[in-house]
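User: I'm putting together notes for a lab meeting next week and I want to include a structural view of one of the chains we've been expressing. I don't have a solved structure, so I'd like a prediction I can at least talk through. The sequence is below, exactly as it appears in our construct file.
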Amino acid sequence: MALIPKVVGTLSCVLLMLLGGLTGCTIGKGPTRPISDASISVAVQAKLIRDHASHFPRINVETEQGVVNLSGVVKTDSQRAQAEHLASQVDGVVKVNNNLEIQN
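Assistant: Thanks for the context. Below is the predicted structure for the 104-residue chain, given as C-alpha cells.
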C-alpha cells in the first residue's frame, strides 16, 4: 500500500517535467524561418494567376525585404484592388506597393 503514493508522486513529477518542457511549443507549426523574397514573388504571381474571376493580364511582381511591388496594366479599378488584396494575403508579405495602371 505504501507503494501507491510513491508511484503517484513519481508520475506527477514526470508529468510536470514534461509539461514544463513543452512550454512555448506550438502544436502543428514547425520552426519558423524567414521567407525569401523570391518565394514571396512566386507565391504572389501564382495567387494572381489562380484568380480566374479577375482575368488578370500579366502583372509584374517584385519583392524586396517582404515589400511587394506590383506593376503592369489592368482593365478596371476593381482588378487593381483585387490584385493588391490577393498579394497582401501571401505569407511573408509586409506591405504591397500597388503601381498597377488602369488601361484606357
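A couple of points you could mention at the meeting. Helices lie at 3-21, 37-50, 77-88. The radius of gyration is 25 Å.

User: Perfect, that's what I needed.
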